[in-house]
TrEMBL record:
Residues 39-191 form the GAF domain. GO terms for molecular function: phosphorelay sensor kinase activity; protein dimerization activity. It comes from the Bacteria. Keywords: Kinase, Transferase, Two-component regulatory system. One of its GO terms (cellular component) is membrane. This is Histidine kinase. The keyword Kinase applies. The lineage of its organism: Bacteria, Bacillati, Actinomycetota, Actinomycetes, Pseudonocardiales. The gene is narX.
Amino acid sequence: MCDRPRMPSSDRAAERAREQEHALNALLAERDGLLSVLDRVLALRGTASLIRDAAGADAGFVADLDGPAQAVIRWIAGNRTDSLQDLAVPVGQGVGGRVLAVGQPVRVSDYVTSSSITHHFDGMVRREAMSAMLAVPVLAERDGRVETVAVAYAALRGPGEFGDDAVGAVQAVAREAARALRLADRAEAGRSTAVAAERQRMQASLHDSVGAMLFSIGAQVRDLRTTVPDNPVLSTRLGRLESDVSAASLALRESLLALAESSPERALPVELAEHCRSFEARTGVPARLVQLGEVEPLDAERTALLIGAVREGLLNAEKHAGAATVVVSLGMVDGGVQVAVADDGSPADGGAADPADGSGLGIRMLVERAARLDGRVSLVHDEDGGTTLRMLLPVPR
């Protein structure tokens, strides 16, 4: 039996360097791909060209949903005129409107003579000299239902028709477009949460600084007025100053109320983002919030309980875990809203733990409160280290 030749150490080092470079390049490519779809416009702008190329068509275009019963053609590749740009397509009208109605691909061999569609848009189609046309829905799952969120079109000029291969190719592009839209929606939710959290910090800062300053000035003016009762001129000027301070305080309160305005569905992620920020500032451990799609608005009791679960999870990570990173996630799961606090702290006994058995008082109280709302709490220790606390509360119907 002969031994396998051993690779020189320099060659092994070079091989490892190549592997690391390949991994880095892959990560950079993935990052660039994600960044390119973090905006809804960017996510769909390039889709029109992809549709045209995938179907072997002369033109491709995409209509974005504008309300539940209408789509608007926003992005076009291969057009000759602007007749289709920003064209509103109500449900049931033309090829795209029929797709909105049935949720299935629709194709015609000659648009202006087809008997299977309405002809509200024949003039626009004629100006583009289009004949055969295909439209497929861009589908996304929302609240457990599959819905059409956009419509992808392909069109030919001159003789020809779209076969099954073309339908499959456009559907494949539509699936990628749906994935890009999901990422864009999540990014938008994250941006909205960040903006709302910043508004909350500005509100607190203005209240603590400018508000306190105006209160102090007002108190001093009132004190001066009592010390100079025999000086009517100065008393009058101080009275005006007191009125100005009162008006400024009122304007500040109105501004603080405006900064505090937030839709109910934003209240929960804003609070969670603020707790992550406070945890990171307090401990120096990076903590970030990941929102996995839109979350239905909740009543005050459920919102407070989910916030309490995140606060408890962060407290445990701070006291016990010795974590390098903490991730808080929020999303809809099994018809309910779930929060999770995951850290990569010190190794612990593997497996799922009963959070009501042997856990701290805070966890046991969360279990009891969640149970009263038909919710559940789990505490899982990973074999390789780290702990994840989850709470799931059903959404009342």
